[in-house]
Each structure stands twice: as C-alpha cells, then as structure tokens.
Write the structure tokens for this entry.
Amino acid sequence: MAGKTIVLCAGEASGDQLGAGLIVQLRLRLPDARFVGIGGSAMRAAGMETWWDSQTLSVMGLVEVLRHLPRLLAVRRAFIERIADCGASIYVGIDAPDFNLPIERRLKARGMRTVHYVSPSIWAWRQKRAAKIGRSADCVLCLFPFEPALYARYGVAAHFVGHPFADEMPLKPDRAAARELLGQGSQRRLLALLPGSRAGEIERLGADFVGAAQCLLRAVPDLRVLIAAHNEDIAARMRLLIDTSEVALRHRFVLVIGQMRPVLAASDVALVASGTATLEALLSRCPMVVAYRIAALTYWIVRIFGLLKVRLYSLPNVLAGRQIVPEISQNDVSAVNLSNALMPWFDNGAELAEVQTEFERIHVQLRCDASARAAEEIVKLLP
C-alpha cells in the first residue's frame, strides 16, 4: 500500500480538526501515503497538500448556499478534475455533505473507493437520505452510537468510530489551569460566549449574545464574559458589537482568539451557537444554553415542507435522549430570553451536578480512539 494518494475534503473548522487527526493515524499505517485535497490549517500542519482552503466551502443554510452556488459549483468542477489527474486511491469526504456527497457519487461511479466521515444529521432531517448516501459512499464513519442502525435499515455500511474530540479532551477538565492560562481569577464567575465560526452566524446571533451578556453583567457583579472567537475576522465582528454596548460594561468583556476549549474549561456557564461547539462545551463539563437561528427564508422552507423531524436539535440533548440543556431558536432568540435561560445555571447546584454527571457519561461513551478506528476502516477499503 506504499505510495497511495488519499484525497480528503473538509469544509469547515470542525472538519479540519477531524481531518488532521485522521491524517496522523493514516500516516502511521501508510507512511509513504500522499494526502491532498481541501482542508484548513490543522490538516496542512498534519502534512496535507491543500488545493483549496476549507473556508472556501464554509456556507450555512439553504438560502446562503444558493447565493454562493456558482462559486461552489466552479470549485467542485475544478476539484474533480484535479482528483482525476492525481491518481488517487480513495476519497474521504469529511462532513460538508452538500459538497462532498455529489463528488463521492461521481467518483464511486468511476470505480474509486469513497468514504463519508461524519454522518449527516439524518436523525433530524429525512432518515430516508441514508439510502442516497449509500449510493455515494462505500462506507459511512459515524461519530455517534445511534447512527449506524439508521443506515442498516437501508443496507448501507456504517461504523461507529467515536468522536475524536472525546479522545482529545480530558475526562476531568482542569478549570484552575484554564483560568490561569486566560489570566482569570479563581473566584470570579465567567460566562463563555460562543457565537459561531461563520460570519453569517455572527450576523444572526452576535447582537443577542452580547445583549444577553450585558443583562447578566448588570445582575452579577463579579461576572466576566469571555468571547471565544474562531479567528481574527470573527473577533473583529464581535468587537464592533461590544463597542455598541454600555460603556460601563465594556471592560468586562474579554475577547479570546483560537482558544475555545480553555474558555469553556474556565467558564461557569456558556451561551453557544448550535453545532459542534455544544459538544465541546459538554466535554468541558460546562453547562450551557444553546441558540439557533437560520435565515428567515430558510426557516420558512423548513417549516412549510416539514423538513425538521425532531423536537430537540442540540447535540447534548440528542445524545442524552432528553432535554438537559435549554434550547432557544429562531424568533425566540432575544437578549432577554437568553439571559433568563442562563441565569439559573449560576445558582442551581443540584441540577448542575446532575447535568455534569450526564455530560461525563456521554464523554465516556464517545471516547473510542476515533481517529485510529476511522483510519482502520479506511485502510480496509484501499484497493
């Protein structure tokens, strides 16, 4: 198997992290392999030759995708051409299903082995998509234990590998060390704001997140707010929102760039945009309120066509099988509603202990050496 070329494609920050861990494990098994495709800084650091950066594909929502569709289709055409010319043995699409699955389907039809790493949320959006996914991917690698059974109904090969984040993050977070790293006192109460890693998320949620934080800053004298910004662009957008807040409160906001996990480990409570960050908050044992707001037209389409099939959408609640953290979505997202949902976490010790016990149970369940297990499944498929 020496000298194999493996194409990978990750469409956003979380996929870039998953891809980097996968490359490390694949290189242990295939030391002479070449890794190429679409990825971010983490995958480049792991030794991948990136033809396009993962931010190229970072678009969220039906309406938003339509606006960027010509550019995305052009990238996809050029990407497929480069794959055809590079002599690849296998294609690994990491999340980004709208981009990756059509590519996988075309490559599979040409005889190339294909893997889809991270199952789309078929548990929430039309479970019958599993059959269509099976026509694109020879194998689906699932991060959550309930997912393979959904694929089995349609005869699709799917394997639970666990979640790499659960492997990376300690079962007992060191809160004191995280606070020391961030220069925060041991007695001060901290609220983490995680408004998302995309500009669109900041546009939809940023102002309400900052507004909710202001409400809490007025009510909790020793509170500081740590804003976990994915990059400088997100930090700049959040800084503009902070500058519009009350002058007396501005100094109690702290912007932290690229250190989401220390922010979560240090904080007492988090306000989090729905997505992978909610899982990282869970793994950090940080109680949270989850917010979700999509573009108005996208939301109308989802409602009219009944596309959303679940009552609970945040990962902590889905993995627990019940509501253990508050979810606030769409028109209910407001500074007042968010702050009202956050406040009880500061004072309810019994409920907090119960939720953190559930967080630990889920953490143990997902801790499976995921990158190694995923690499083993990929190696099995290599021609």
Remarks:
- The chain has two domains: 5-162+368-381, 175-366.
